[in-house]
Automatic annotation (TrEMBL):
Signal sequence annotation: none
Organism in which the protein naturally occurs: Corynebacterium riegelii
Domain Endoribonuclease L-PSP/chorismate mutase-like positions: 5-150
Domain of life of the native organism: Bacteria
Gene3D superfamilies: RutC-like
Name recorded for this polypeptide: LysR family transcriptional regulator
Pfam families reported for this sequence: YjgF_endoribonc
InterPro entries: Endoribo_LPSP/chorism_mut-like, RutC-like_sf
PANTHER family in the cross-refs: ENDORIBONUCLEASE L-PSP_CHORISMATE MUTASE-LIKE DOMAIN-CONTAINING PROTEIN (PTHR43760:SF1), ENDORIBONUCLEASE-RELATED (PTHR43760)
Length: 157
């Protein structure tokens, strides 16, 4: 089964690639890997929430935003090389804009990690970092990056 078919089976639709908010590209291919830029939880070009997790944003909501970030990252991968060329998820790096007392960054980034396992099964198991930060671009509560391995290195368009 293709990954696109798996998304359809799960009722998940990839969003359009989020427009960069500065001078960078959403994803870049290096050999048989794709590295995404940090993806915010943008939905139709807007953030669903702003502020610190543990204060203005709940842990549960932040986990959903991490899931949206991961979907945005997969959209960037798909636009660059096609999702069906993904062999496995290598690494997730998650940043959580955290209230000083908030220490559950790993639980927030589980929103992205759990999505990868849901879509890719064993190929979705990955290394990961979950980092608390003072602030993120546009006052987003969470940001996620992906590194994926490709089954083969498709020629760049």
């Amino acid at each position: 089964m293709s990954w696109k078919a798996r998304l359809a089976e799960l009722g998940i639709e990839l969003p359009s690639v989020a427009a960069p908010v500065a001078s960078y590209v959403p994803a870049i291919q290096v050999g048989n890997q794709v590295w995404t830029s940090g993806q915010l939880p943008l939905v139709d070009g807007a953030l669903p929430a702003t502020g610190k997790v543990g204060a203005a944003v709940s842990e549960a909501d932040a986990a959903e935003y991490a899931r949206q970030c991961a979907l945005n990252a997969l959209a960037a991968v798909d636009a660059l090389v096609g999702l069906d060329n993904v062999a496995r998820i290598v690494k997730i790096v998650g940043f959580v804009s955290s209230d000083p007392a908030f220490t559950s960054q790993p639980a927030v980034i589980n929103g992205a990690s759990d999505l990868m396992k849901e879509i890719f099964g064993d190929a979705g198991e990955h290394a990961r970092s979950a980092v608390g930060v003072a602030v993120l671009p546009l006052d987003a509560p969470v940001e996620v990056e992906l590194v994926v391995e490709l089954a083969e290195a498709p020629a760049k368009a």
